[in-house]
Structure to design on (352 residues):
């Protein structure tokens, strides 16, 4: 690379002073020569901004006046950041010195690469993958996301089985590299998501534009996970079920979306019965509320914010049902019925 691209690591923070104290030093030790480290503060009340000003004065702090969630928070902060590449990094991620170089080098090698992610491993068990991203994200034909190294609750040990970099369907928002021009072209995150699956939606939109999303095995980071919402939180259940339906509505042509969403709502009803059977009444109600909000979003006036980007794009946007990283089968059927618990157990011929 003759001209070193400007890279901005942007950490969105909400009352995360503990994580900033622990993990920000590793980010500041990054060796990329043209790097800004920025913390976007999402209306914190724990003194995070003051802490940064006192102990990390080199870090730029961009303040939001409220907690706009992952989507709204990043959309507002990144409007004020100048760089060739954004790195959206969770505050609970530990990085190593040279983690930026391999991914920027990969993205610079192909102008169609819009986003990429490193290998994401567990901070608590560093020889295991981490739930949020692992070794690259994929999706099945019903819209269920999964990862190489993580399928549902089954987490694989990293034994070197996923050392090949390449194109995937989605890159994790825990450590997501995005080329700024494509972020702007796609109009950023869909604000309605608030948090969870917003990065899958963005990657799907980018891929529908004819762009690529990559996994880079030469870089790895360590993620704590569950720093904001733990897995048992009913609000997380609500977001996951609601956003998965929004994901399908945003990225599939109307009639196909209608067909797939009908199947998904039926499967969600089965999930409600399962939650009730397990005594998780709040989670069952969360799924019901997710459906109610999704219907409300359909009838809400105005188009999704992403659609604005179509007129600004020089890249033709299509609804492609054969995108790289999409799985032709049902991951639910394969995992729970056929007992295929690892990514390597899936038939490679079943992927586009």
């Amino acid at each position: 690379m003759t001209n070193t691209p400007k890279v901005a690591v942007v950490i969105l923070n909400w009352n995360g002073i503990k994580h900033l104290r622990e993990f920000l030093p590793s980010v500041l030790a990054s060796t990329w020569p043209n790097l800004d480290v920025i913390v976007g503060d999402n209306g914190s009340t724990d003194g995070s901004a003051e802490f940064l000003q006192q102990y990390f004065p080199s870090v730029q702090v961009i303040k939001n006046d409220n907690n706009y969630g992952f989507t709204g928070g990043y959309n507002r902060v990144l409007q004020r950041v100048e760089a060739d590449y954004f790195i959206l990094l969770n505050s609970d991620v530990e990085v190593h010195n040279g983690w930026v170089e391999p991914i920027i080098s990969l993205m610079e090698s192909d102008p169609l690469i819009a986003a990429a992610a490193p290998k994401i491993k567990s901070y608590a068990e560093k020889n295991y993958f981490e739930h949020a991203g692992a070794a690259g994200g994929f999706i099945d034909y019903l819209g269920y996301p999964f990862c190489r190294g993580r399928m549902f609750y089954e987490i694989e040990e990293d034994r070197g089985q996923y050392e090949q970099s390449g194109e995937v369907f989605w890159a994790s928002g825990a450590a997501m590299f995005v080329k700024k021009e494509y972020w702007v072209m796609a109009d950023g995150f869909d604000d309605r998501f608030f948090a969870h699956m917003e990065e899958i939606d963005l990657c799907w939109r980018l891929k529908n534009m004819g762009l690529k999303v990559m996994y880079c095995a030469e870089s790895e980071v360590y993620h704590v996970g569950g720093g904001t919402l733990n897995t048992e939180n009913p609000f997380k259940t609500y977001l996951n079920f609601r956003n998965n339906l929004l994901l399908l509505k945003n990225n599939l042509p109307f009639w196909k979306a209608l067909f797939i969403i009908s199947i998904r709502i039926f499967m969600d009803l089965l999930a409600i019965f399962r939650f009730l059977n397990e005594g998780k009444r709040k989670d069952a109600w969360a799924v019901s509320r997710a459906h109610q909000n999704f219907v409300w979003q359909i009838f809400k006036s105005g188009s999704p914010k992403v659609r604005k980007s179509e007129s600004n794009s020089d890249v033709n946007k299509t609804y492609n049902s054969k995108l790289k990283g999409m799985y032709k089968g049902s991951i639910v059927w394969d995992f729970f019925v056929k007992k295929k618990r690892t990514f390597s157990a899936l038939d490679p011929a079943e992927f586009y």
Observations:
- The chain is about 35% helix and 20% strand.
